[in-house]
Amino acid sequence: MALAITNENYESLIASGQPVVIDFWAEWCGPCRMVGPIIDELATEYEGKVVIGKCDVDSADDIVAQYRVRNIPTVIFIKNGEVVDKVVGATSKETLKAKVDALL
What is the per-residue pLDDT across 21-63, written as a single tens digit (0 to 9) for each? Predict the structure, then answer.
């Protein structure tokens, strides 16, 4: 299960030194509900190697603004505190898995 990323825990996750994947989503977003289960599967598969979480855009304005997220779902890939890749819109597990592998 993916970690819930909030304004409160975000800084410590980025500072952990591990690669981080953040899925920006909302309850009311249809495509987000398609990507959500994939993110949960990847979180289980990469547990201990990559921090994979979901950030609800309706409750984390600071994080949304920082990454200039305008469309959801948006999945960003962070390594060494820097965004190295991004996917906007619904996509396949294979595509996301390849991008997570590139972080390692």
Answer: 999 999 999 999 999 999 999 999 999 999 999 999 999 999 9
Measured at the alpha carbon of residue 4, what is the angle toward residues 41 and 21, in degrees to the nearest 5? 60
> Catalytic residue among 32, 52, 55, 75, which?
32
| Cα dist from 103 to 6, 41, 65, 79, 98, whole Å | 22, 17, 23, 7, 9
| CATH number of the domain enclosing 93 | 3.40.30.10
55 labelled catalytic: no
Q: Which domain holds residue 40?
A: 3-103
CA distances, 97 to each of 11, 23, 39, 100, 102 (Å):
24, 13, 9, 5, 9
Catalytic: 29? Answer: yes
Residue 46 tokens read as 């990469």
